[in-house]
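Justification of resources, computational component.

The compute hours requested in this renewal are based largely on the per-chain cost of generating structure records like the one below. Each record pairs the submitted sequence with a full structure-token output. That output is archived, and it is also reused by downstream analysis tasks.
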Amino acid sequence: MNKNKMNKDRISKNKMNKDRISKNKMNKDRISKNKMNKARINLNMNIQEIVKKFPEVEKILLEKGMHCLTCPFSNKESLKEGAIGHGINPKKLVKELNKKIKNIK
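The structure output for this chain reads:
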């Protein structure tokens, strides 16, 4: 009878461990989804990096006259520098780009 009780305890502990592992996996999935939702464009990112990560914003940049996408400086120049160089308010541009990627995802 003592062995039966030990087996039941062991089975119970295994079940608790499986539940704990399952909860941890669900938390990791939730955190991963939150990180995806929080992906943002910022003023310090270079233009090439932005277009690679968020190709859906390319159209907005082109409409604003920022034909920097193929420019040799696009991998060195930040979004802020490019916007200022083209006479665009950088903060408004970032808001518009982030709104676009938020609506896509």
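Helices lie at 2-37, 47-53, 58-63, 79-85, 90-104. Residues 2-37 form the longest helix (36 residues).
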